[in-house]
Amino acid sequence: MSVLQAFYQSRLLEAGLDEAGRGCLAGPVVAAAVILPPDADHPLLNDSKKLSETKRILLREWVLTHALAWGIGNASVEEIDEINILNASFLAMHRAVNQLTITPQLLLVDGNRFNAYPAIVHQCVIGGDALFRSIAAASILAKTERDFLMIQMHQQFPAYNWQRNKGYPTIEHRRGITSNGITPHHRRSFNMGVQCQLEW
């Protein structure tokens, strides 16, 4: 059994929502939506940031197998630069909900802000990915999906070592920018010297 709660409430069908990549200098922001059945649980299930890459990949397969429905959406670098990273995160979340094959009655959103999705009520939960199973599951799908995308991009632009830093502003990534400039995958609206908490 995990230490996470099964539901925020039991009356409405919930979908957990989370995103990955907001603090990055490069790559899209990716979001996932997950609806879990009441008895779906895994002893390792937790916020993706608290898990090793090996455990995230294992749990990704568990989520894809056990979820009643799941969806993944993203917002491109161009969209991030046009509408800002916060709104792009909400856009990616909406696109993830669009992919669900079951319509939830409540969106359980990690964080403290969200742009309302048409005809579905939502509840924001700060630190929700460490509290509720559906949000944790969404965080794992979003994180692993984005990591896969960044590893693919690394093949084209190896100078930035995205296969390791996944686009976050590590020293090696910033040095790559200094030596080679930016790529089409870099967010031009971001300060390329910015520092943030690393996630991998």
Could you give a quick summary of the protein structure above?
This protein is an alpha/beta fold. The chain contains 6 helices and 5 strands; from the N terminus they run ββαβααββααα. β1 and β2 (29-35) form a beta hairpin.
Description of the structure:
- The chain is of the alpha/beta class and 200 residues long.
- The chain is built from six helices and five strands; from the N terminus they run ββαβααββααα.
- The chain has helices at residues 53-66, 77-83, 85-98, 133-156, 162-165, 171-180; strands spanning 14-20, 29-35, 69-75, 106-110, 121-125.
- A five-stranded mixed β-sheet has the order 3-2-1-4-5.
- The protein is globular, with a radius of gyration of 17 Å.
- Regions with little confidence, pLDDT below 50 for 5+ residues: 193-200
CATH superfamily of one domain: Ribonuclease H-like superfamily/Ribonuclease H
Q: Helicity, in percent?
A: 25-40%
Please tell me how large the radius of gyration is.
Answer: 17 Å
- Side-by-side strand order of the widest sheet: 3-2-1-4-5
CATH class of one domain: Alpha Beta
- Biggest sheet: strands, sense, closure? 5 strands, mixed
Order of helices and strands: EEHEHHEEHHH
Write down the overall mean pLDDT: 94
* Number of separate helices: 6
Q: From the helix content, strand content and strand pairing, which structural class follows?
A: alpha/beta
* Number of extended strands: 5
Give the CA-based shape. Answer: globular
Cα end-to-end separation: 24 Å
CATH topology of one domain: Nucleotidyltransferase, domain 5
Please give the CATH architecture of one domain.
Answer: 2-Layer Sandwich
Q: Please report which band the strand proportion falls in: under 5%, 5-15%, 15-25%, 25-35%, 35-45% or over 45%.
A: 15-25%
